């Protein structure tokens, strides 16, 4: 006999936990199934940013932002390949979700500019704090139960064609659970599936693998069996900014280029506009000889190191021996094994162009997207970090509509099936704005729960009252 629930959620990262808390506030009986021994998934590996606009934290720091500018930036970074309606829903719901997260105990610590930002809008969290807080909030409701180390094997339909049953394995035994209102897939992408990466992204073969341990594409296969369509496969890209020794446990990541550093290949030559999305930078980096590149910066940029920050704690990486330091550009070139004359000429040309007001080589005139002004690299000592591309998250996945319903190839909802987080495609398009991944996970996790519970009479009143 099957266990009976209103909503079943597959995956316990930020998207799944937000869906669980949202559903629990509407008196729904919820089951969350997570195949790993701990909750959090790839959300634990995130860069700690959530992209929101118009918050009180921005206002306290004198930052003017708006949902309109946020949406505009996302569409520009995505090169217009995003599903515009999804981005617009993000814009409409993001401020409310920020306040909702705060009301549920999630702590935001600072606002920083990062990839794709016209103004600083990366609201920093500690993923462990956010995840444990949402998990405890779900448990405290009394409406949510969790099954950890449980692997979902198949989804099954009712006689009327509605997706309603989950078959999962735990401790070598097979279980069935039935959802009366909906099943929500929040189980991440496929960054740890070599089979799927080889099939859909062979261009990323050289990228190091850092994605969440459980991100093997299980949810995609569960949905594909029932006719789900997929979006954004042509735009699969790696994430630039990692030291080659990085791993899931040790991220060793720096985005000094968004503070003004330049990026060069092993010949000492620049090859990209450093203000672009780090996804697009990663694509160009993988084209370089031996896939090798370096970030080059000076003491002024080093002074902007932020202790504990996932992207800007340069001092910590230096203390770990991952960053080289030298009094001259020539000495720095020797340390990292690239031609001295080439690197000196590259830095000199860049400095001259920046002082002249125009980067003649690659058109860089900002630090990131439309924010910030580059200045010359000339304050010794100088620094370099070998940097590579990582397969951190796939950002291509199931086709969904604005209600988080999974769609088939004819753009029709698959009744009873919803998706949110990394598993959902169509949102980012050809690029990626920092913070929008965790942001969309929280926003559309809530949307999925609301939509599932609005689908039948029993919960419509609760949904309309929220």
TrEMBL record:
Signal peptide: none
Domain FAD-dependent oxidoreductase 2 FAD-binding, chain residue ranges per copy: 7-438
Alphabetically ordered keywords of this record: FAD, Flavoprotein, Oxidoreductase
One GO BP annotation of this record: steroid metabolic process
Keyword Acetylation: no
Gene Ontology molecular function terms on file: FMN binding; steroid dehydrogenase activity, acting on the CH-CH group of donors
Name of the protein in its database record: Fumarate reductase flavoprotein subunit
């Amino acid at each position: 006999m099957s266990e009976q629930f209103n909503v079943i959620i597959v995956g316990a990262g930020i998207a799944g936990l937000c869906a669980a808390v949202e559903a629990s506030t509407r008196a729904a009986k919820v089951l969350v199934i997570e195949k790993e021994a701990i909750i959090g998934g790839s959300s634990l590996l995130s860069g700690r940013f959530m992209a929101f606009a118009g918050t009180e934290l921005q206002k306290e720091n004198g930052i003017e932002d708006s949902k309109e500018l946020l949406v505009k930036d996302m569409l520009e970074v995505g090169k217009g390949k995003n599903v515009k309606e999804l981005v617009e829903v993000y814009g409409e719901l993001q401020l409310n979700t920020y306040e909702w997260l705060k009301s549920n105990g999630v702590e935001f610590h600072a606002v920083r500019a990062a990839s794709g930002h016209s103004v600083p809008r990366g609201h920093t969290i500690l993923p462990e704090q956010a995840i444990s807080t949402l998990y405890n909030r779900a448990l405290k409701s009394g409406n949510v139960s969790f099954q950890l180390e449980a692997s979902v094997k198949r989804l099954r339909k009712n006689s009327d064609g509605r997706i309603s049953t989950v078959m999962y394995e735990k401790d070598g035994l097979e279980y069935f659970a039935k959802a009366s209102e909906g099943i929500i897939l929040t189980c991440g992408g496929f960054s740890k599936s070599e089979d799927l990466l080889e099939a859909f992204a062979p261009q990323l073969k050289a990228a190091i693998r850092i994605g969440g341990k459980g991100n093997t594409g299980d949810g995609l296969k569960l949905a594909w069996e029932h006719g789900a369509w997929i979006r954004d496969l042509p735009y699969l890209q790696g994430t630039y900014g990692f030291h080659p020794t990085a791993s899931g446990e040790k991220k060793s990541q720096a985005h000094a280029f968004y503070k003004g550093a330049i990026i060069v290949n092993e010949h000492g030559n620049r090859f990209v506009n450093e203000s672009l999305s780090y996804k697009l930078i990663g694509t160009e980096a993988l084209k370089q000889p031996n896939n090798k590149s370096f970030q080059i910066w000076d003491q002024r940029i080093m002074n902007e190191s932020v202790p504990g920050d996932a992207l800007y704690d340069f001092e910590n990486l230096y203390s770990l021996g991952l960053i080289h330091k030298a009094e001259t550009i020539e000495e720095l070139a020797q340390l990292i094994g690239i031609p001295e004359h080439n690197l000196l000429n590259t830095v000199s040309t860049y400095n001259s162009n920046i002082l002249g007001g125009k980067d003649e080589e690659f058109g860089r005139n900002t630090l990131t997207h439309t924010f910030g002004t580059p200045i010359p690299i000339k304050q010794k000592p100088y620094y370099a970090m070998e940097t590579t591309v990582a397969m951190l998250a796939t950002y291509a996945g199931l086709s969904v509509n604005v209600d988080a319903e999974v769609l088939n190839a004819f753009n029709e909802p698959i009744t009873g099936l919803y998706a949110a987080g990394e598993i959902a495609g169509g949102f980012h398009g050809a690029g990626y704005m920092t913070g929008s991944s965790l942001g969309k996970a929280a926003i559309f996790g809530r949307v999925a729960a609301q939509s599932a519970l609005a689908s039948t009479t029993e919960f419509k009143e609760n949904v309309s009252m929220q």
